[in-house]
Amino acid sequence: MEGVADLFKFVVKGTAFTSRDQKNVEVLQDSLFCISEDGLIAKIIQPDEAGYKETIQEYSTKGQLQELASDQYILPGFVDLHIHAPQWAQAGTALDLPLYEWLNTYTFPLEAKFSDQAFADRVYSDLVSQLLKNGTTTALYFATIHQKASLRLAEICSEKGQRGLVGKVVMDDPEQNPDYYRDDDAKVAIAETEAFIQEVLELNKHTPQGVYPVVTPRFIPSCTDKSLEGLGALAAKYDVHIQSHCSESDWAHEYVKERFGKNDAVALNEFGLLSEKAVMAHCGFLSDEDMQLFAEKGTAVAHCPISNAYFGNAVTPVAKLLNEYQVEVGLGSDISGGFSPNLFDNIKQAVISSRMLEDGVDKDCCSDKRGVKGSSLTLNEAFYLATAGGGESLSLPIGKLAVDYAWDVQFVTTKGLPIFSETEPLLDVFQKIIYLSRPECIQEVWVQARKVYDKTVEQRKEEI
Ligand code: GUN
Ligand code: FE
């Protein structure tokens, strides 16, 4: 057999779980993941395939084989499809008010503080490290209105090795935003967004895993028609990602209907803000026509199940979006509307919320009217949202363990989980990992074949 020397940067041997499609998880048992110089999965070799033994021999001799222990498993890194980076500073607090009051009482005053670069640096550095430690290898971030601090977030992602998609937030309507925290006017907001796009595109040239600028109108209620129009045009000019909030909460949904006489989805589309690269958070109140429009445009939904339990006023019908309309859907933590930065927590809540939607919750309502049939999601489907669904939503080759996808992975241990048989079916092991593992179970995290978190190294640092 011909030698395979120098073909791969390194080879990893282990058992992995990955979504095959929306409903099925595939087990890749004792497989060899052959990683190319540019950080992609170049080849996956199964134990019964040609070259398996030779590859192990060759890469082990060269010291380029990493072999996982029998209690370790490989999962794709998570994609957080909606997160407010500045709100990390208030995560786990301030969840006692509805959305409108929450924004004005807690969130705008906090975000205004990010005019201070040193403060931004501290919060953003800590957040990116925490996300990596939690297995989040890609994140789609809202920053704040401040161009400089938003760029700092992109730089921190670049330095720490996370794949970051970052938006400088636009909120320019003087009627809707406080004087202490808004863009001066639409013209300034658009000019600063354009400068920010150029800066991040430049940074991306030196960032192997990728950092991407994102056009980010906060949501329709924050923005004038002029800024919405200008941002749609900018997104088209640079062919960049777009993000916003869409039909979240009774209040936000009704506000848009009153202002435009139409739903968020239709209005956003008319401003050029629904595209293949657009991701809209929440979408709890989409009509059937709105869902159809999302499908036609290739626009994705960022489902944020923990946040929705506080601010959403409804459970987003994810099963319907996926199954009836083939809309792309991923999972978002929505820090700090959602309190947890951990996507394992959000996967679990996605399942739980969907089951409550299926059955309904009011005992005084008769059982056949209480819920919405066909709404429940399986664990496999929720796992898909946090991984492959997020990758598809961003139109990036991430979230799956397959050839030509990035080597973005987390290695988790099952030590401490209730596994009492060596012949436990692997798909049961998978379910235990997703339902029961804690962040401490994540031992290594890799992005584009760079190790960005190693629990043993972190522990040693803490001991010193
Ligand atoms: N709508 C507008 N801004 C926000 C925000 O920061 N969080 C959430 N959950 N919804 C919003
Ligand atoms: Fe949000």
Describe, in short, the structure shown.
The chain is of the alpha/beta class and 464 residues long. The chain contains 16 helices and 17 strands. Catalyzes the hydrolytic deamination of guanine, producing xanthine and ammonia.
Description:
The protein is of the alpha/beta class and 464 residues long. It folds into 2 domains: 138 residues, Urease, subunit C, domain 1; 316 residues, TIM Barrel, CATH 3.20.20.140. The chain is 40% helix and 21% strand. It is built from 16 helices and 17 strands. The strands form 2 sheets. Strands 6, 7, 8, 9, 10, 11, 12, 13 and 14 form a 9-stranded parallel beta sheet that branches. Helix 4 runs parallel beside helix 5, helix 5 packs parallel to helix 6 and helix 8 runs parallel beside helix 9. The structure holds guanine (GUN) and fe (iii) ion. Guanine binds next to helix 2 and helix 10.
Name a few traits of the molecule.
alpha/beta, Urease, subunit C, domain 1, TIM Barrel, 2 domains, nine-stranded parallel β-sheet, 21% strand, binds guanine, binds fe (iii) ion
* CATH topology call of the largest domain: TIM Barrel
Question: Share of helix among residues?
Answer: 40-55%
| Class by alpha and beta content | alpha/beta
Mean pLDDT: 97
Ends apart, CA distance between termini: 49 Å
CATH superfamily of the largest domain: Metal-dependent hydrolases
- Note the total helix count: 16
What is the CATH top level name of the largest domain? Alpha Beta
Low-confidence stretches: 1-5
The major beta sheet can be summarized as:
9 strands, parallel
Kindly estimate the percentage of residues that lie in beta strands according to DSSP: 15-25%
What's the β-strand tally?
17
Q: Give the names of the bound compounds.
A: guanine, fe (iii) ion
What's the Cα radius of gyration? 22 Å
Apparent shape: globular
Count of all domains: 2
Per CATH, the architecture of the largest domain is Alpha-Beta Barrel
